[in-house]
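Entry 12.
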Amino acid sequence: MKSFTIASVAALFIAQAAAVPTGNLLKRAAITDLDILQFALTLEHLENTFYKKGIEMMPESDFIAAGYSDFFYSNLKYVVEDEESHVVALTAGIKAAGGSPVAACTYDFPFVDVKSFVTLASVLEGVGVSAYLGAAGSITDKDYLTIAASILVTEAIHTSLLRFNIGEIAPANPYGSPLGLNEVFTLAGSFIVSCPASNGALPVSAFPTLTPAQGIPTMVGIPFDFTFTGAAPATPFITYVNGLSVISEPATVKGTTYTAQVPQGISGQSYAILTSSNVTGTLTDSVVVAGPAIVEVTPSAPTFDLSIL
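Predicted 3D structure (tokens):
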């Protein structure tokens, strides 16, 4: 049986990134609360279909044979129920707001066995958490914000469940990692083959591909290579988004290879983005050249002070 790791799943995101669809998914306009709800529903349709495809393809006996417990499989069925509930709730909310909810698209999920399915689920859930967290600041209606926050909590629980069961540190960072809509679409949209013509356009577009060029997980302080085949920015940086930190490291360029050190303070599922400048504070789309690429960074040993009460 083929074994999949975070590294191989990250590569699957990259391998499909060039095929991100455009057409009726995309528009450029001011983002409204209804746009965010529609984008959230787009992501929930993806997750709902992903989990149901996995459950349909692989019975509980396959999970047991792959080394997972029956208790994990039971938890996984609750995750499937959660994702369906999110689709139903967002659909109802969009209708109540006078919108026409987007329908599920056609997807290509490249898992081949239980291990690749569970590992891909872990990464997808992490991206989902980052999507809700990143969109929170743009939601103006408090009721919608409460709904989004409630879903975010559940997605974070899913992430911890899955990370623990693939052998990664579940609480790898004390904070979630917010991503912008375009960064999220660059990652999640790589699994969308096509969408119904009836779906309204969304205010998102994909960035060019940034590819990890070495194995992961990696560690802080280690030079890490990426490849990018587009025009090199005059002052290239690899900017990491992880937790509440946005840290840029200068990149050296040799051909299509960009090398930058993994900065201190980065841990767990992280997002590496090629930027045209050193980012301090908020990352804006105007400086994004390519990415994000998903990089799993092994957390340092935990430290705490028993005198802080």
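Annotation: Residues 70-96 form the longest helix (27 residues). The chain has seven helices and ten strands.
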